[in-house]
Design a protein that fits this description.
single chain, mainly alpha, two-stranded antiparallel sheet, 8 helices, elongated, disordered C terminus
Length: about 270
């Protein structure tokens, strides 16, 4: 505790001395170096790193260990059979999606706390775009409930043939695919803005931040083109859309957990009297 206070005092003294030297050299008066990191930012960095890793692990388990096992592409009958035979497991995947959504809300809040001192407007914009991503993911989760309801065999569904219900259930599952890539566009936009703020702030290595900007912008471009040209996935595989961005997020998470934030060294314009 005393060590943290001592380091904070030393950083404050460094800022004061640097500003005084800048003013004496004629470069001061209108600029102030702001490289003090608040305790709330450091805490938010740990929360962001931990939350992303947990949500990432959750969504990987849901998609690759459950959905990949139960949902058979272009086969409504077998998919319906798998879901009904493993209904509890399918419901676990729905619960996992809800955990993921809650985690992303925590993540966007933590990122806003970290990046707000750099540029409050852009940090807020990134938070709103990431919130759109969460809402699209919630819509995907509701589609899973609808698919399960169609296959439930409820009395009010007896007016429909089994094959039709299975086809409708598959339609809802495929709709989730579209929701994902629409939401991914906004998630990648948020990541691009955050990458720029990371780069500007120098809170993390600029090379890592630059990779974040490039990988996120690449994801934005791919998802946007894919919405217009549905065969674009034959040129760039769907897995490549967000893989580079995912690598950046994983590396960033470990950095925030074990390294934390470092002083930014950025400058702000300030008004002086006289």
């Amino acid at each position: 505790m005393h060590r943290e206070e001592s380091e904070r005092v030393q950083r404050s003294i460094t800022v004061i001395v640097r500003n005084a030297l800048m003013k004496m050299s004629g470069r001061g008066g209108n600029e102030m170096t702001t490289n003090i990191i608040e305790k709330s930012q450091q805490t938010a960095a740990k929360v962001a790193g931990f939350t992303y890793l947990i949500t990432f692990a959750t969504v990987v388990y849901v998609n690759f260990c459950i959905h990949a096992r139960l949902i058979v592409r272009n086969n409504a009958v077998e998919t319906a059979h798998n879901i009904l035979a493993h209904e509890r497991l399918f419901r676990v995947s729905i619960a996992g999606d809800l955990i993921y959504c809650a985690g992303v809300v925590v993540l966007l809040t933590a990122l806003y706390v970290i990046l707000k001192p750099v540029n409050r407007g852009l940090a807020l914009l990134a938070a709103f775009w990431r919130l759109v991503w969460v809402l699209m993911w919630l819509l995907m989760t509701l589609n899973l409930f609808d698919a399960l309801r169609l296959l439930s065999g409820a009395d009010y569904l007896r007016a429909f043939e089994t094959e039709r219900l299975q086809a409708l259930a598959m339609l809802y599952l495929r709709t989730s695919f579209d929701c994902y890539y629409v939401g991914l566009l906004f998630g990648a936009l948020a990541s691009t803005v955050c990458g720029y703020l990371w780069f500007k702030s120098r809170y993390i290595p600029r090379s890592l931040a630059a990779f974040g900007v490039i990988s996120s912008a690449f994801c934005v471009a791919c998802t946007f083109v894919f919405c217009i040209f549905p065969n674009f996935d034959k040129i760039v595989g769907l897995g490549w859309f967000d893989m580079p961005m995912g690598i950046f997020d994983i590396v960033l998470s470990f950095w925030l957990l074990f390294k934390g934030l470092r002083p930014s060294g950025i400058t702000e314009s300030v008004k002086t009297s006289g």
